[in-house]
Amino acid sequence: MVQAIPFLLVLSLALVAPGHSARKCVLTGKWVNDLGSNMTIGALNGKGEFAGSYHTAVTATMNEIQVSPLQGSQHNTNQKSQPTFGFTVNWSFSDSVTVFTGQCFVDDEGKEVLKTMWLLRSHVDKISDDWKATRVGINTFTRLRSRKE
Ligand code: BTN
Description:
- This protein is mainly beta.
- The chain has one domain (20-143): Avidin-like (Lipocalin).
- It has one helix and eight strands; from the N terminus they run H-E-E-E-E-E-E-E-E.
- It has one helix spanning 4-16, and strands at 29-33, 38-41, 49-55, 68-74, 84-90, 97-106, 112-121, 134-143.
- An eight-stranded antiparallel barrel has the order 1-2-3-4-5-6-7-8.
- A hairpin with a 4-residue loop joins strand 1 (29-33) and strand 2 (38-41).
- The two termini are 38 Å apart.
- Residues 33, 35, 37, 56, 58-61, 91, 94, 96, 98, 118, 120, 122, 137, 139 line the site of biotin.
- The site of biotin has 17 residues, from strand 7 and strand 8.
């Protein structure tokens, strides 16, 4: 038992060492971002693919916002604890598409955070308007917990 104590100390230190979080970041669930947009990501299949829904809080259009479908995949190589991923939102209420790419992190407090960048492609009628058709930005998502938890 006495011999086991140093081993357990080293093991616990290794698990909580900065940049080597013991907790796995899981994409499945409900998330809210810095704009107040909500998204739900369903279970991943064996290939790391997932589907879900996105309720944006903002729009570049004058249209009424509707919940829109998303489809994406997580990079599953080596089963990383902080995986990279990407997904596409095909907006139900506009002619636009947004692609997000990012990484699922566990922060210093053990909270899961999705750090993403996105490209929002709006529809334009003519090729000469192409230059203004794509917006770029970043969003940070945190897990949305129900009040019962
Ligand atoms: C549109 O305006 O045509 C569709 C909605 C776009 C919402 C964008 S996508 C990137 C950014 N992040 C959000 O949560 N909402 C906006």
